[in-house]
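WARN  no MSA supplied for this record, continuing single-sequence
INFO  ligand: flavin mononucleotide
INFO  echoing inputs
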Amino acid sequence: MKELSKGNTEIAAEFIQKAVGGDLFKIDTAKPYSTSYMTCIEEAKAELRADARPELKAYPENFEDYDTIFVGYPNWWGTMPMCMFTMLEKYDTTGKTIIPFCTNEGSGMGSSERDLKKLCGGAVIKKGLSIHGAETQHSESKIAEWAKRSV
Ligand SMILES: Cc1cc2nc3c(=O)[nH]c(=O)nc-3n(C[C@H](O)[C@H](O)[C@H](O)COP(=O)(O)O)c2cc1C
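INFO  complex generated
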């Protein structure tokens, strides 16, 4: 366990942008999670159990202008953090192509692809990429190749 100045998912997102271009948008909650890992995982578990929709700091202004969206997140308790549900429920993704990627420490994509299909009914959800979180920094070529293949 260590505190990262830049998270694994953000590093992966930057590799994708370098490989295929596009704009980055970081999803952040209005209320920060605890900096203590053990407290944070309990907060996350409580949100999952409550099927919560934590408020976000900001939303992208021109979501509708994008046809293809890479959606990245860490695996939290087997799926996406609940703020991803907050975000994706807010928009109509009909006709868009969603390409998921998930950093994790062993659970892979978990049920996130299934959850994305439920949330984004009218979208095409492409096969996602699972990235071992601790190896993200050294996975640029794997991430870049997958991103290029996926668009
Ligand atoms: C609240 C919380 C729950 C997590 N749950 C899982 C899990 O169920 N399975 C797993 O493989 N990794 C789990 N992890 C590890 C993260 O998915 C992994 O460290 C990820 O790369 C973190 O990405 P980030 O640096 O962008 O936040 C969890 C981490 C946190 C903080």
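The chain has one domain: 9-150.
INFO  checksum written, moving to next record
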